[in-house]
């Protein structure tokens, strides 16, 4: 029972209601104005479903299709929880991003028309085109606003509130 209690992230600024104004603005963005909430549903911030978000997995990494043998599952991976996300990098199923801000920028690329927002700040190169475009979760990725720097910062600040204080102490 003691071990199992360590698996529950319930001592976070989000759970304790101790968010700053900027973090609260990020929470509002996640729940009401971005595509994030389509898949990252509270309280665990996952819907436990599978999506192709357009990352370029290794050729041998076919996602859910490895289990189902269904070509519609090619490139689809399970939505991870956002609980403790600030301490679980590198990010994405293939560990391609080192920074949470880069993750947000990656998702933002589906809604922005600003060419500067299509550049991965970690590499200085454009985000790669999806390797498996046929199964891309277009609906889940594209019905949100393009985010400016203030909104990106607020969203990242909120994501950090989902980390339990036992991991930051």
Structure notes:
- This protein is mainly α and about 170 residues long.
- Helix content is about 30%, strand content about 5%.
- The chain has 7 helices and 4 strands.
- A two-stranded antiparallel sheet has the order 1-2. A two-stranded antiparallel ribbon has the order 3-4.
- Strand 3 (about 120) and strand 4 (about 125) form a beta hairpin.
- Helix 5 crosses helix 7.
- The radius of gyration is 16 Å and the shape is globular.
Q: Widest sheet: strand order?
A: 1-2
Task: Quote the distance from N terminus to C terminus.
Answer: 22 Å
Relative helix content: 25-40%
The main pleated sheet reads as: 2 strands, antiparallel
In terms of DSSP E residues, the strand content is: under 5%
Q: What structural class is derived from the secondary structure elements?
A: mainly alpha
Which whole number gives the mean pLDDT? 90
Radius of gyration: 16 Å
- The geometry reads as globular
> Count of DSSP E strands?
4
Q: Secondary-structure element order, as H and E?
A: HHHEHEHEEHH
Distinct helical segment count:
7
Low-confidence parts: none
Ordered list of secondary-structure elements with their pairings:
Blueprint: H1 2-6, H2 13-16, H3 21-33, E1 50-51, H4 65-68, E2 77-78, H5 100-108, E3 119-120, E4 125-126, H6 138-142, H7 149-160
Antiparallel strand pairs: 1-2, 3-4
């Amino acid at each position: 029972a003691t071990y199992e209690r360590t698996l529950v992230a319930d001592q976070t600024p989000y759970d304790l209601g101790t968010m700053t104004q900027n973090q609260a603005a990020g929470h509002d963005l996640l729940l009401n104005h971005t595509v994030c909430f389509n898949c990252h549903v509270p309280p665990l911030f996952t819907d436990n479903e599978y999506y192709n978000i357009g990352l370029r997995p290794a050729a041998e990494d076919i996602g859910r299709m490895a289990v189902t043998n269904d070509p519609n599952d090619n490139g689809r991976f399970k939505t991870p929880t956002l609980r403790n996300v600030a301490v679980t990098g590198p990010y994405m199923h293939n560990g391609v991003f080192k920074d949470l801000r880069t993750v947000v920028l990656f998702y933002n690329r589906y809604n922005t028309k600003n060419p500067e927002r299509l550049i991965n700040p970690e590499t200085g190169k454009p985000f790669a085109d999806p390797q498996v475009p046929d199964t891309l979760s277009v609906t889940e990725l594209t019905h949100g606003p393009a985010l400016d720097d203030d909104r990106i910062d607020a969203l990242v600040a909120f994501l950090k509130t989902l980390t339990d204080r036992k991991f930051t102490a």
